Amino acid sequence: MPVKDKADFAKNILPFLADLEEDEAGPDPLLAAKRLGISPQDMVVLSRNENPYGPSPAARAALQDVPMHRYPDSRPFLEALSRYTGFFPPWLVTGAGMDEIISTICRIFLGPGDRALIPAPTYNLYALATGLCGARPFYQPRTASFAVNPDIPDGVKMVFLCSPNNPTSNALSEDNVQAVLDETDAIVFLDEAYVEFAGKSLAGLVREHQNLVVGRTLSKAFGLAGMRLGYAIAPPWIAEQYRRVAPMFSISSPSLAAGVAALQDLDWMRECVKRTVSERERMRERLPCALPSQANFLYLQTGPESRGIAEQLLK
Ligand code: PMP
């Protein structure tokens, strides 16, 4: 028998994976530091849109007393989220980062042959999570100002909105989101990962729309990306389905403890947001090709020169 090689087995990979774009978060910081001859400690890594100031010191302190022999108890985290968002716990679900929330929501609503509307360009996980459920992304171009076209084709089962949008950095207007909700029977997932930097949330719309889920994370303004803390505000009927489908203990006890402490120190988070927004505006003044941003990152319209500009910025 001839020895089979990788190609004989790679044919089993799901075909849609070949069409997905790579997640591009810039060069590896350690390699870049080495190449530029600087110490990694002197570098501030911004390419994953984290909070470079880190979390509240209370989050680190909270790790001391975490019981490790028990399964995690997410109730204190839910209560802290309830105080922060103004929604009661039946309207809240949690996951190991918003990425897990997105994948779980897709598993509730998308199956083979279904379609999900994805306004392009946007965060690449929506397409991956859609495809992994056997469903197909339906990419719809945004308007010139990166708003979402509210003409939602019939038969779409999910719509992914992102405000402020990664990568275009603009927030969607309430009218724009409302127009999408008016137009469709699909489940609308509104990703508010960067909402603290925009100042205005549309989560209040969940009270009026039984098909709206708003995803959030502690990875950005709260500086806890490494702890993997995501949550969503959802109508209770969707939250119930979520709890049936989601892994029970995906957020570890140390992460939950850090999350509770961070949510009790909102002054820290707000100060980080203030400093980030001020740095964002300082950078934007120096970069004529950067568009106005409501997030903690800038979207540059560079034309074909982007690699050279990225290298200059890195330096
Ligand atoms: N949504 C958007 C728009 C993002 O940019 C990111 C992270 N880059 C996420 C969700 C994922 O967040 P988390 O770290 O909570 O998984």
Structure description:
The protein contains 12 helices and 7 strands. The chain folds into 2 domains: 80 residues, no CATH class; 207 residues, Aspartate Aminotransferase, domain 2 (3-Layer(aba) Sandwich). It is 37% helix and 12% strand. With 315 residues, the chain is an alpha/beta fold. It has a 7-stranded mixed beta sheet with strand order 1-7-6-5-4-2-3, sandwiched between helices. The protein binds 4'-deoxy-4'-aminopyridoxal-5'-phosphate (PMP). 4'-deoxy-4'-aminopyridoxal-5'-phosphate binds next to α5. The site of 4'-deoxy-4'-aminopyridoxal-5'-phosphate has 13 residues, from α5.
Helix and strand arrangement:
Blueprint: H1 6-10, H2 29-36, H3 57-61, H4 75-85, E1 92-95, H5 97-109, E2 115-120, H6 125-132, E3 136-141, E4 156-162, H7 174-183, E5 187-191, H8 195-198, E6 212-217, E7 230-233, H9 236-245, H10 253-263, H11 266-286, H12 306-314
Parallel strand pairs: 2-3, 2-4, 4-5, 5-6
Antiparallel strand pairs: 1-7, 6-7
Helix pairs in contact: 4-10, 5-6
Summarize this entry quickly.
37% of the residues lie in helices and 12% in strands.
Primary descriptors:
Aspartate Aminotransferase, domain 2; globular; binds 4'-deoxy-4'-aminopyridoxal-5'-phosphate; alpha/beta; about 325 residues
**CATH top level label of the largest domain:** Alpha Beta
Mean pLDDT: 95
C-alpha-based Rg, rounded: 20 Å
Shape annotation: globular
Give the helix tally: 12
Instruction: Write down the CATH topology of the largest domain.
Output: Aspartate Aminotransferase, domain 2
Class inferred from helices and paired strands: alpha/beta
Largest sheet: 7 strands, mixed
